[in-house]
């Protein structure tokens, strides 16, 4: 069996999270991903949120497995020549520099087309074309300006940003969807394409249900003291052992009746809770009752009761519980790195009939510089000269 993207070569000029998330997915599909980093420092996330002094951070290693690293000084004349030679030999270029950064170095979409008419050029920006196009953005900006933060949290408190990277990682995933579509189109036309994506557009997409409801005239965010949109009826309850159970019951009448049956609590027959609308209207009163009920048993007991009743529920897993979850391990959502060792996050999808790519540790800064340059046709004496000039690290 072959790997899905075997033979596809990606020049990864991205850094931090949105771009590396996408290029890692391409590597997990079997593409040869060449990560370009600054000599000496490398990707800035190698040193951010560092767990062990002097070692690459988990932030970096999580997002850059299965890639090869080359260090190139893009500001030096010979560094630009090296990048241009790599562009000629690649199928995809992915970048998420600040607005105008690559253009000022002479690396425009038009220049990439001149170098390689078949190139797929994918560019991630904070906002994309429009009045904010010169502004930068990070995860929190995408969640706030895309509307997600306004629908999360409590009505008498501030808007709340989720810890899940719906802006950064979501943008990376959708950028890869665009790249794959462009690669498929190239099979028919023989021509490359420009793929654009922005954190704002993806933050908006991730909050799509609330956004569409507002566009249709619904008031998505209740005013204080009511809770914000998604927390209008809190769905997580603390059990006797201090652990949490997740149960959504506001909108589904059939499941509400099943829940009343399995909880055997006559207090839930209160007419204030008879319909989905009334349960939401008396959310705070209902939450007090459910909190008291779920506090009478441990989480494992409730899991058994709710499972037997056929209800949809989950647990709020702590980070140290995830690595022990039998479903996560059985489905290989977490696997050891190739060759054994520490568990790591695996590709979130799989294709039957294609060779599976197991995660390999993220590369050291410039670990493959010489190897990649030799593949590009440079002789060893030229590589030594590049290193002496500071073109590579």
Give a description of the structure.
The protein is an alpha/beta fold and 393 residues long. Helices cover 38% and strands 12% of the residues. The chain has 2 domains: 9-206 and 363-389, 3-Layer(aba) Sandwich (Rossmann fold); 230-322, formyl-coa transferase, domain 3, CATH 3.30.1540. The chain has helices spanning 18-28, 58-63, 77-88, 101-104, 109-115, 139-145, 168-189, 199-206, 208-215, 253-263, 276-281, 283-294, 299-308, 319-322, 326-330, 369-375, 380-389, and strands spanning 9-12, 32-37, 67-71, 92-95, 120-125, 193-198, 236-238, 244-247, 313-315, 334-336, 343-345. The chain has a 6-stranded parallel sheet, with helices on both faces. Strands 7-8-9 form a 3-stranded antiparallel sheet, covered by helices on one side. Strands 10-11 form a two-stranded antiparallel ribbon. The two termini are 37 Å apart. 33% of the residues are buried. Residues 222-226 have low confidence and may be disordered.
Please describe the topology of this protein:
Elements: E1 9-12, H1 18-28, E2 32-37, H2 58-63, E3 67-71, H3 77-88, E4 92-95, H4 101-104, H5 109-115, E5 120-125, H6 139-145, H7 168-189, E6 193-198, H8 199-206, H9 208-215, E7 236-238, E8 244-247, H10 253-263, H11 276-281, H12 283-294, H13 299-308, E9 313-315, H14 319-322, H15 326-330, E10 334-336, E11 343-345, H16 369-375, H17 380-389
Parallel strand pairs: 1-2, 1-4, 2-3, 4-5, 5-6
Antiparallel strand pairs: 7-8, 8-9, 10-11
Helix pairs in contact: 1-7, 6-8, 7-8
């Amino acid at each position: 069996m072959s790997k899905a993207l075997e033979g596809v070569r990606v020049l990864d000029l991205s850094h931090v999270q949105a771009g590396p998330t996408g290029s890692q997915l391409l590597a997990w599909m079997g593409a040869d991903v060449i990560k370009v980093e600054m000599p000496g420092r490398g990707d800035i996330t190698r040193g951010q949120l560092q767990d062990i002094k002097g070692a690459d951070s988990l932030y970096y290693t999580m997002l850059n497995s299965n890639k090869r690293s080359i260090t190139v000084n893009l500001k030096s004349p010979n560094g630009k020549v090296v990048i241009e030679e790599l562009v000629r030999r690649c199928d995809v270029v992915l970048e998420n520099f600040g607005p105008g950064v690559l253009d000022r170095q002479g690396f425009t979409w038009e220049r990439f087309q001149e170098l390689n008419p078949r190139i797929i050029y994918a560019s991630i920006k904070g906002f994309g074309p429009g009045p904010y196009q010169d502004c930068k953005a990070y995860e929190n900006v995408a969640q706030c300006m895309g509307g997600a933060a306004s629908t999360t949290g409590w009505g008498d408190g501030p808007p709340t940003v989720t810890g899940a990277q719906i802006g950064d990682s979501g943008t990376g995933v959708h950028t890869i969807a665009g790249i794959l579509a462009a690669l498929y189109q190239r099979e028919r036309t023989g021509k490359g394409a420009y793929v654009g994506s922005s954190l704002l557009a993806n933050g908006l997409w991730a909050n799509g249900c609330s956004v569409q409801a507002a566009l249709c005239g619904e008031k998505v965010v209740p005013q204080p003291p009511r809770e914000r949109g998604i927390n209008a009826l809190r769905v997580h309850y603390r059990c006797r052992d201090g652990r949490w159970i997740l149960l959504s019951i506001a909108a589904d009448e059939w499941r509400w009746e099943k829940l009343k049956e399995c909880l055997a609590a006559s207090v839930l027959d209160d007419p204030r809770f008879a319909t989905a609308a009334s349960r939401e209207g008396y959310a705070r009163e209902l939450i007090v009752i459910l909190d008291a009920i779920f506090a009478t048993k441990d989480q494992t007991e409730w899991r058994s009761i709710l499972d037997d009743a056929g209800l949809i529920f989950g647990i709020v897993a702590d980070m140290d519980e995830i690595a022990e979850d039998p479903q996560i391990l059985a489905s290989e959502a977490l696997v050891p790195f190739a060759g054994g060792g520490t568990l790591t996050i695996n590709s979130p999808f799989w294709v039957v009939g294609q060779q599976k790519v197991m995660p390999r540790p993220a590369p050291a800064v410039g670990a493959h510089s010489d190897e990649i340059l030799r593949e590009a046709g440079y002789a060893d004496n030229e590589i030594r000269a590049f290193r002496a000039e500071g073109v590579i690290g």
